[in-house]
């Protein structure tokens, strides 16, 4: 949506019957489908409230990634159930960024091997699966047992967290990097760099378009970080003890 003039002074959270709500002055926040904006954890509510409180004269909705993810979880515009979300996430294995390799130029092939092999090896050991890589345009042949293992693992997450996981996967174009990130094996910065390895190689070789490259990189980092934080906060069961947005 377009920017909108800020129409509220204060942001707070309150606990309702369905979870934690966001209050803009005395008005309760609603979703695009006019549902009451209610989140499952106090930590997530505080993070969303901080997004709203950080807006200045105008509300820049495109900067509010956590709010957007919550709206998606609440409204479920695609009307998918849990298994459909899981299968959509696992389908990314078939075109996973870190599984597609080049043979030429040799320098890029070596860079992919050095940077991507360790994270693939970690995933194979962590989940006790076979993944591999391929230089074929068809990609690697992912065993059915590997897909079933990831389906089983993702089923341990709730619907909210799964929305966040799929969001991170779509940013990185990689289930493997996303799971490494969510499992805290790699950092956001590292995951983003690995997802852009070929692009970064080309930039080092040919240079970047002034401002455009930095903007794209910052945006990708912001979206990936927000999605990862969303997953963790949606899996958070403990209550945050400190007061929201203290003066």
UniProtKB/TrEMBL annotation:
InterPro entries: ATP12_ATP_synth-F1-assembly, ATP12_ATP_synth-F1-assembly_N, ATP12_ortho_dom_sf
Membrane topology: Peripheral membrane protein
GO biological process: mitochondrial proton-transporting ATP synthase complex assembly
Record Pfam families: ATP12
GO (cellular component) term, any one: mitochondrial inner membrane
Gene3D superfamilies, per the entry: ATP12 ATPase (1.10.3580.10), ATP12-like (3.30.2180.10)
Keywords: Chaperone, Membrane, Mitochondrion, Mitochondrion inner membrane, Transit peptide
Subcellular localization: Mitochondrion inner membrane
Function: Plays a role in the assembly of the F1 component of the mitochondrial ATP synthase (ATPase).
Family from the record: Belongs to the ATP12 family.
Assembly and binders: Interacts with ATP5F1B; involved in the assembly of the F1 component of the mitochondrial ATP synthase (ATPase). Interacts with FMC1.
UniProt protein name: ATP synthase mitochondrial F1 complex assembly factor 2
Lineage of source species: Eukaryota, Metazoa, Chordata, Craniata, Vertebrata
């Amino acid at each position: 949506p377009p920017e909108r003039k800020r129409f509220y002074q204060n942001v707070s959270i309150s606990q309702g019957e369905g979870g934690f709500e966001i209050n803009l002055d005395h008005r309760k926040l609603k979703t695009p489908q006019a549902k009451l904006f209610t989140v499952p954890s106090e930590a997530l509510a505080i993070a969303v409230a901080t997004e709203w409180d950080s807006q200045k004269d105008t509300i820049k909705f495109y900067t509010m990634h956590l709010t957007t993810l919550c709206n998606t979880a609440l409204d479920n515009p695609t009307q998918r159930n849990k298994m459909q979300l899981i299968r959509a996430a696992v389908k990314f294995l078939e075109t996973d960024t870190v599984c597609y390799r080049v043979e030429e130029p040799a320098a890029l092939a070596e860079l992919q091997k050095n940077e991507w092999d360790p994270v693939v090896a970690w995933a194979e050991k962590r989940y006790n699966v076979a993944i591999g890589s391929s230089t074929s345009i068809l990609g690697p042949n992912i065993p059915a047992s590997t897909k079933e293992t990831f389906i089983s693992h993702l089923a341990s997450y709730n619907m909210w967290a799964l929305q966040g996981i799929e969001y991170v996967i779509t940013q990185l174009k990689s289930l493997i990097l996303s799971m490494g990130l969510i499992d805290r094996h790699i950092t956001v910065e590292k995951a983003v760099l690995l997802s852009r390895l070929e692009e970064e190689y080309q930039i080092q070789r040919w240079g970047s378009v002034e401002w455009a490259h930095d903007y794209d990189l910052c945006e990708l980092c912001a979206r990936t970080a927000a999605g990862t934080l969303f997953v963790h906060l949606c899996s958070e069961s403990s209550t945050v003890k400190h007061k929201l947005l203290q003066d």
